[in-house]
Amino acid sequence: MYRIKPWEDLTIQDDYMFKLIMSRKRICKKMLEKTLADTDS
């Protein structure tokens, strides 16, 4: 049986949260900028 996670427990690895972030241009852009900046080293 599938159990729904509480909102507070969701991370970017959860399909719902990933889809939510990617569907919002401003949030998606900020997340990608931070992610890519971390890999610059």
How far the N terminus sits from the C terminus, by CA atoms, comes to 43 Å
Strand content: under 5%
Overall number of domains: 1
Shape: elongated
> How does the major sheet shape up?
none
Overall strand count: 0
Helix/strand-derived category reads: mainly alpha
- Are there runs of 5+ residues with pLDDT below 50, and where? none
Rounded mean pLDDT score: 88
Radius of gyration, CA atoms, in whole angstroms: 13 Å
The count of helical stretches stands at: 2
- Percent helix range: 40-55%
Order of helices and strands: HH
Structural write-up:
- This protein is an all-alpha fold.
- It has one domain.
- 54% of the residues lie in helices and 0% in strands.
- The protein has helices at 15-22, 25-38.
- The mean pLDDT is 88.
Compact description:
With 41 residues, this protein is mainly α.
Please name the defining characteristics of this protein.
single chain; 41 residues; mainly alpha; 54% helix; elongated
